[in-house]
Predict the structure.
Amino acid sequence: MNLQKSKYSKRGRPAAWVSLIAAVLAMAAAFFGGAGVSSAEPAASAAGPFFQLRPAHASTKCLDVRNNDGGTANGTPIQLFDCLGAGQTNQVWQAVAVGGGFFQLRPAHAPTKCLDVRNNNGGTANGTPIQLFDCLGTGQANQLWRSVQITPILFQLRPMHAQTKCLDVRNNDGGTANGTPIQLFDCLGSGQTNQQWRIVTV
């Protein structure tokens, strides 16, 4: 698979990607929607820039692949953890377009793996864990995400298979401790800041 291999440097980044970074998730429908990929493996040109995802309620924390510097096994949990910089590649993500405004989210340390809603083809119950899993193609709806803009810089992330559910930081209104699990939960509106994410380019 020929995903783009970035050194996480801002130098030489195409202007189109710089614009995308400003609102990569909010603009996914417009930018990625025309980049439909019919094959199981998205084309390299459909891959966006690299970024961290930080929840609005804990802006120094990142969406993180658990297990020291990031596990790569299927089923590795996704958690909240202190943002440790651009070199911490298990906290660095890339959006890969699949068309229709949906995208996969792949960690830089394991670019053939996807952000995945656990339980076979994706659970829908509140509290369903979010995990790492092999990217299984454009038909795997529990690995496909879309963004819903809440403010100019904050977005909800909703899976294709359960579009009233959000990527959520567990523990009531959102834990802030390192290791807090990431889960699926009903989207509860603009005041639910543990379901809102911003991007930070690396």
In short: DSSP finds two helices and twelve strands in the chain. The first helix runs from residue 15 to 22. The longest strand covers residues 47-55. The mean pLDDT is 82.
